[in-house]
């Protein structure tokens, strides 16, 4: 056994190897590697501690994302997340934390903190108050108000010597118009023409907020009516002087004393009764005393001593806005201070843009607009709400900051409202037990912002205790597939005001059974929706779409006027059916055909793909590229 034991002495068994009994030393390379690693770690720690020694001023708003806070401290986002984790706050780098938590983290990292409110981006947006020596006289801004059909637009017409009333559906002003006219004395006056129907209350109130004085139009035969009273209240609330224009004095048997006494009941005392409100008797039809009305306006302007500083950044108000097919978002603005120049960067509500073009009310391009001048501006990123203020700012960065803040605020407001509307589970159960609150859901699409807003106000007034009218979506432009999807999901009616559905949207609506109702007069919308609310839908006149024709050429024919050379692009066109003329998806005329011909023969109907000639009764403003929509109305029993 002795020799075997000796042989085994030089061997290492597994147990000994694991226990490390061997006394062999570490290799030189291994030691070098370890030392290099230690040196690198020490270097990294030194660098890190050096970074932390740089004390920064960290600006912290009301809410800040973890990533943004890390950027502002020049630290790694992961380190910030760890610091929050140690404080008991679980947050990813994309989540927002409040200002108090962010301050604790920044202090822990050894930085100085400066707290700011997000709304500070709006500070200094409105310019400084002008000094007396910088002010120069400016034209007065006059708002024309009064009851529907008392002749506001006709009066403005007579003043402008143009025909505005002839282009309007049912003789009702559908949109706010703003015009500047130069009167024979050389003075200039800006007129804002507000829609006269009760439904436009919100717009009319806004009209009074940008105005220097109000011309209250009262028809001599009708006297003071509900909307006249409303207009008086708006003018009094806005604390602006009023001039009473008694219109239609050419009508036989009018009693002016009755009008004066009715005005007296609403605290409007005219000069003939010893008051200080000027009263002018006019006839828009005959053009009587228009010069006296203009004199009264100029006199009132002199009393008010209207001044503004034209040599500063522009400020003003958005009067109207729309989405134009060829030009993009278009806003009609009234400049109130400073001069608006082409190329200026403006912020209008939650939208901004560089002014690409400035166009006056006659469609003439301008390079600049001075105080009291109403102009259309092109170049905004979106359609601003009517009634918003607009301000020229120094650069794009500032404009973006302000609009992003405002858009975020608007989104938060909508989210909060949606949350409030949902209510608690108990509220919902209570509603279900009480027979479920019924509602009429509506999607509104209109041709301009003011109309969509006014429709929202109108429909809001129709809600009853048992049945609620809910406007799911209200916007400007054509009806798209997404509108139909929204209406289908919510079982809603689509209300189209002077706009049309795209072909795809119309097909989708037919397929999914979504009802699109087309209107061009606002109280027809109110009447129809009210019938829905009452649940007593009378037999309705439903439109049946027949076809579309595209105008390829326009021929001028003596005694017949303009004839449109068309190709039928969809469906059929029938003589005797109703027709509408569409330009860029917006209705500009509704009437009947006076002529429908194939070659030289009269035709009863023309089918898809064929060409034909058409002309309208008493309407000649047709252009190449316009679309003609043909439809029939049929009486359908109530559902």
What does this structure look like?
It is a single chain. The chain has 639 residues and is α+β, with helices and mostly antiparallel strands. It has five domains: 60 residues, Arc Repressor Mutant, subunit A; 174 residues, Rossmann fold (3-Layer(aba) Sandwich), CATH 3.40.50.300; 91 residues, Translation factors (Elongation Factor Tu (Ef-tu), domain 3); 114 residues, Translation initiation factor IF- 2, domain 3 (Rossmann fold), CATH 3.40.50.10050; 94 residues, Elongation Factor Tu (Ef-tu), domain 3, CATH 2.40.30. Helices cover 32% and strands 32% of the residues. It has 17 helices and 33 strands. The strands form eight sheets. A six-stranded mixed β-sheet has the order 7-8-6-9-10-11, sandwiched between helices. Strands 13-14-20-17-16-21 form a six-stranded antiparallel barrel. Strands 26-27-32-29-28-33 form a six-stranded antiparallel beta barrel. Helix 4 crosses helix 5, helix 8 packs parallel to helix 9 and helix 15 runs parallel beside helix 16. It is globular, with a radius of gyration of 36 Å. One of its GO terms (molecular function) is translation initiation factor activity. InterPro entries: EF-G-like_DII, EFTu-like_2, IF2_II, IF2_N, P-loop_NTPase, Small_GTP-bd, T_Tr_GTP-bd_dom, TF_IF2_bacterial-like. It is found in: Cytoplasm.
Shape: globular
The averaged pLDDT comes out at: 77
**Approximate helicity band:** 25-40%
* CATH fourth-tier homologous superfamily of the largest domain: P-loop containing nucleotide triphosphate hydrolases
| Overall number of structural domains | 5
Derived structural class: alpha+beta
Number of strands: 33
InterPro entries: EF-G-like_DII (IPR053905), EFTu-like_2 (IPR004161), IF2_II (IPR044145), IF2_N (IPR006847), P-loop_NTPase (IPR027417), Small_GTP-bd (IPR005225), T_Tr_GTP-bd_dom (IPR000795), TF_IF2_bacterial-like (IPR000178)
Domain Tr-type G: 137-307
Keywords: Cytoplasm, GTP-binding, Initiation factor, Nucleotide-binding, Protein biosynthesis
Pfam families: EF-G_D2, GTP_EFTU, GTP_EFTU_D2, IF-2, IF2_N
């Amino acid at each position: 056994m002795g020799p075997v034991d000796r042989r085994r002495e030089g061997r290492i068994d597994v147990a000994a190897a694991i226990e490390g009994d061997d006394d062999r030393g570490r290799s030189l390379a291994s030691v070098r590697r370890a030392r290099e690693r230690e040196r690198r770690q020490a270097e990294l720690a030194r660098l890190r501690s050096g970074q932390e020694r740089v004390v920064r001023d960290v600006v912290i708003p009301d809410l800040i994302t973890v990533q943004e806070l890390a950027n502002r401290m020049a630290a790694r986002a992961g380190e910030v997340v760890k610091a929050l984790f140690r404080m008991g706050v679980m947050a990813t780098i994309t989540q927002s934390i409040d200002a108090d938590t962010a301050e604790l983290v920044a202090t822990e990292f050894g930085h100085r903190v400066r707290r700011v409110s997000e709304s500070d981006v709006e500070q200094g947006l409105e310019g400084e108050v002008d000094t007396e020596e910088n002010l120069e006289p400016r034209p007065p801004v006059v708002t024309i108000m009064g009851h529907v059909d008392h002749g506001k637009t006709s009066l403005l017409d007579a003043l402008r010597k143009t025909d505005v009333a002839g282009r309007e559906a049912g003789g009702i002003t559908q949109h706010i118009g703003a015009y500047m006219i130069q009167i024979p004395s050389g003075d200039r006056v800006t007129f804002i023409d507000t829609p006269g129907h009760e439904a436009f209350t919100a717009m009319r109130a806004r009209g009074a907020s940008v105005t220097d004085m109000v011309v209250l139009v009262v028809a001599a035969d009708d006297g003071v009516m509900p909307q006249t009273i409303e207009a008086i209240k708006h003018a009094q609330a806005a604390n602006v002087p009023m001039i009473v224009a008694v219109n239609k004095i050419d009508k036989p048997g009018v009693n002016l004393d009755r009008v004066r006494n009715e005005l007296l009941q609403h605290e409007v005392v005219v000069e003939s009764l010893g008051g200080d409100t000027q009263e002018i008797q006019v006839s828009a039809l005959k053009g009587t005393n228009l010069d006296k009305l203009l004199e009264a306006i100029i006199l009132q302007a002199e009393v008010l001593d209207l001044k503004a500083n034209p040599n500063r950044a522009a400020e003003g108000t958005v009067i109207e806005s729309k989405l134009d097919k060829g030009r993009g978002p278009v806003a009609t603005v009234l400049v109130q201070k400073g001069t608006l120049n082409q190329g200026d960067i403006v912020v209008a509500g939650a939208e901004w843009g560089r002014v690409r073009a400035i166009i006056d009310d006659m469609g003439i391009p301008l390079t600049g607009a001075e105080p009291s001048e109403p102009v259309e501006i092109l170049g905004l990123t979106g359609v601003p709400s009517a009634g918003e203020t607009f301000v020229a700012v120094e650069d794009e960065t500032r404009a973006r900051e302000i609009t992003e803040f405002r858009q975020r605020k608007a989104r938060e407001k909508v989210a909060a409202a949606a949350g409030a509307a949902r209510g608690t589970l108990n509220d919902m159960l209570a509603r279900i037990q009480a027979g479920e609150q019924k509602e009429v859901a509506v999607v509104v699409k209109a041709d301009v912002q003011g109309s969509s807003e006014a429709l929202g106000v109108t429909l809001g007034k129709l809600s009853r205790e048992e049945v609620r009218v809910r406007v799911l979506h209200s916007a400007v432009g054509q009806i798209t597939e997404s509108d139909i999807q929204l209406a289908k999901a919510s079982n809603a009616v689509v209300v189209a005001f002077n706009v049309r559905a795209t072909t795809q949207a119309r097909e989708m609506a037919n397929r999914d059974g979504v009802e699109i109702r087309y209107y061009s007069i606002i109280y027809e919308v109110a009447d129809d929706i009210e019938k829905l609310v009452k649940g007593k839908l009378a037999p309705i006149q439903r439109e049946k779409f027949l076809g579309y024709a595209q105008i390829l050429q326009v021929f001028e024919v003596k005694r017949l006027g303009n004839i449109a050379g068309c190709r039928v692009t969809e469906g059929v066109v029938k003589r005797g059916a109703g027709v509408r003329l569409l330009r860029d998806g917006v209705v500009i005329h509704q009437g009947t055909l006076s002529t429908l011909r194939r070659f030289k023969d009269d035709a009863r109907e023309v089918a898809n793909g064929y060409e034909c000639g058409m002309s309208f009764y008493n309407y000649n403003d047709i252009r190449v590229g316009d679309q003609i929509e043909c439809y029939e109305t049929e009486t359908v029993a109530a559902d």
